[in-house]
Amino acid sequence: MSESGYGRSLRGRVAVVGVAESDLGQVAPGLTSLDLCGQAAVRALADAGIAKSEVDGLFTASSYFAMAGMDTAEYLGLRPTYLDGSNIGGSSFVSHVLHAATAIEHGLCEVALVVYGSTQRSDGGRLVSPTRPDTYEGPYKPRYPVSMYALAAARHMHQYGTTREQLADVAVAARDWARLNPAAFERGPLTREDVLSARLISDPLTTRDCCLVTDGGGALVLVSAERARELEANGGKAPAYVLGVGEATWHRNISRMPDLTVTAATDSGRRAFEMAGLAPADVDVVELYDAFTINPILFLEDLGFCAKGEGGAFVEKGGIAPGGTLPVNTNGGGLSYGHPGMYGVFTVIEAVRQLRGECGERQVAGAEVALAHGNGGVLSSQVTALLGTADTL
Q1: Which domain holds residue 236?
Q2: Under a CB-based contact definition with an 8 Å cutoff, are residues 96 and 86 in contact?
Q3: Is residue 173 part of a domain?
Q4: Residues with Cβ < 8 Å from 109, sequence gap 6 or more?
Q5: What per-residue confidence (pLDDT) applies to 138?
Q6: Domain match, 92 and 103 both
Q7: Residues 73-97: tens digit of each pLDDT
Q8: Same domain, 41 and 190
């Protein structure tokens, strides 16, 4: 079908008015993933100035519960009129921004809570997944999911000349941002040499090319633009308006990925920019799902910030670090800030805080448009969201 006018009616109609994380890193013994959902939800609602009793829309996903919507609603004591438990991996919560905006716009709920929690580090401290091996991939015994991303990295290096040093620069840039963020899990110095000399996990990726494994949760609160303006007028924080969101998926298993160097972010980004009426040049700050160092390189290309094959040169020697060409993953990302199994909700949280001007030393001056991008599966599900201040409407 034609994508002309894709979702244009949603532009600026809904806003994020509350964001928060739960306790992060490695949490106190005995806490569960639902406890972290509860922490994040309470804090995000307080950030929004909205009572829990007003929440009538719940959007969540989980690696622990097959029926996450019902489990989370029960734990939080909610009886939502609209419930969405769609799980498309780490991109789920960026997707939920679109679903929540649509539900609010059509009167299916008035206060939407997007929430996630995981105790993955406390549960074992390894990057694990309940995903069953694919029939055609299982016999080769890949290490899920790192082997899949290593495959994409190796192909990009072969096809475009991307170097191990450029991949390492992605991790170094993330650490440089994390050192400005008191909440980041890893804040020590990190150099190219540290990344390159780290233990090899799946050629060409070392441990420092891989995301952290932490506990943590996050939550977002969305309302209509009208309600958002009322909250701000009554002393609330500045809203972050939803300008555009696009979703896309081309495959589930890496062996069926059409091209290992091109992701469905080409579609999700185009749809988000079309809805927003914007272009990559309009974006002030970018928050990408960086489960592995190849991810930002691929997504910067596919979202239009540089040409295909030029991502390595774009990130080289601080291109996306503080003071670089484009601020990317300003909280430290999944590589240094934290990564509790699914990272997508944190891209939105950081985007909102940048638009509010709440980020202290890592604040991007004058940020008015922020991009948050989620990735699910093995470069499978891609969701792109554009958020803006009132000046962008």
Answers
A1: 8-124+214-242
A2: yes
A3: yes
A4: 56, 57, 80, 81, 82, 100, 103
A5: 87
A6: yes
A7: 999 999 999 999 999 999 999 999 9
A8: no
